Amino acid sequence: MKAVVFHGVGHIVVDEVDDPTLEAPTDAIIKIVTSSICGTDLHMLRGTMTGMRYGTILGHEAVGIVEKVGQSVTSVKPGDRVVVCSTIACGECVYCEAKEYSSCDRSNPNGPQAGTAFFGGPEATGAFNGLQAERARIPFADSVLVKLKKSVSDADALLCSDIFPTGYMGVEMADVKEGDYVAIFGCGPVGQMAIAVAKYLGAKEVFAIDVLPDRLKVAKQQGAIPINFEKVDPVEQLRKLTNGYGPDAVIDAVGIDAQRPHKGPATSIVGVVESVLEKTAGAPLAVLTGNHWQKGDGPEQVLQWCVEAVRKSGVISIIGVYPETEDNFPIGKVMSKALTVRAANCSHRKYIPKCLKMMEDTPFRPSTILTVFEGLENAVDCYKHFDKREPGWLKVELIPEAE
Ligand SMILES: NC(=O)c1ccc[n+]([C@@H]2O[C@H](COP(=O)([O-])OP(=O)(O)OC[C@H]3O[C@@H](n4cnc5c(N)ncnc54)[C@H](O)[C@@H]3O)[C@@H](O)[C@H]2O)c1
Ligand SMILES: [Zn+2]
Ligand SMILES: [Zn+2]
Fold first, then answer.
1. Rounded to two decimals, what is the model's pTM?
2. How far, in Å, is the centroid of ligand 1 from the Cα of 163?
3. What is the pLDDT of residues 253-282, one digit of tens each?
4. Does residue 258 line the site of ligand 1, with CB under 6 A?
5. Which CATH class is domain 167-343?
6. Each residue of 317-367: pLDDT tens digit?
7. Four-way CATH pick for 2-162+347-399: 3.40.50.970, 3.90.180.10, 3.90.1720.10, 3.40.630.30
8. For ion ligand 2, residues whose CB falls within 5 Å
9. CA–CA gap between residue 262 and residue 43 (Å, rounded)
10. Do 102 and 87 meet the contact criterion of CB atoms below 8 Å apart?
11. How far apart are the first and last CA of the chain?
């Protein structure tokens, strides 16, 4: 079958690989109807999430049709249309019982103390083959696959695989209540989902911070107030717009590949120097890859802005991904401002039903952020455009059987 295969940092290939087979009685095999590229895949390509195994199939977002199930699978059967939870959880351990699926004790082959297991990720996440392929093996199928009603389109379901539930979780972790001011850093696909959910859960005003005009425009169309961090200082602007207090909650939907401002009032001398150092460190890769797969030049920029911008006693919710090696966080300011900080990989199985309910209750359709539809064979080019965050490349759908 065809699949997007990781060969090294900055190097992926659409390759012919063996079809997956059932390996455990709890497995299922699905035929992928549609899949997509996520900002998390970019961290792996840029080398900011390290430890990818050569030959791992990428991708953790998909809708599929069940083809085969292992003996002990009971909740799905061949022919069922399903959305795949990006994170792999057993459904039965103490964490799964508590709906803390991303902390599952049994699904990561590296043991209970290892972090979240997910499709198409590094060794530390289990090195499971991913979903940018024609078929996939789904471990713990009873817990990882969610059967879909006919009324939910493939495109809407695809976004329920990862980014819509992640945005939902980000807003819940931010404790957003009726009448709150909420700031969301990052207007990529995940940030856009968080904007929609924050409005749905009662935020009075949502501020959306990014530097890319096309993404800020989509945020504005969703009813958020756009803030371009190269035009204004986002921390000052957020205070100005919240009567001097700062937002009640801030959400980091950017993660480790954050950019610093390169112009405007938020630029600082220290920032410029650190940016040059980050870029110099990445220079050899840049020469080899024609400037693709560049790490962000301000890995802690968004964390710092979150801590500075949020009001005293406010909440910071981190859904942008940071590798386990990241240990630079302004804890002193967190203490003096009496902040609550939460960070997690998404427990998709918990949030997918909430997303489906939001679609039932409102006209919101997550698929409106899909802007590019391509065949799986064109994946490498799509990755390059998405990596560069080119205008119009907000979210890419990869379809195995596209004409
Ligand atoms: N926690 C989870 O389970 C989970 C699930 C899915 C994705 N993620 C993570 O969410 C993050 C966003 O994913 P995405 O698909 O939207 O990625 P993306 O790369 O498309 O979007 C990131 C956005 O952040 C903007 N940005 C960069 N620096 C910024 C800054 N300093 N301030 C404000 N905005 C800035 C970029 O311009 C871009 O629009 C990634 O880190 C991804 O790994 C986490
Ligand atoms: Zn994702
Ligand atoms: Zn479990």
1. 0.96
2. 10
3. 999 999 999 999 999 877 777 767 766 665
4. yes
5. alpha beta
6. 999 999 988 988 999 999 999 999 999 999 999 999 999 999 999 999 999
7. 3.90.180.10
8. 38, 40, 162
9. 21
10. yes
11. 17
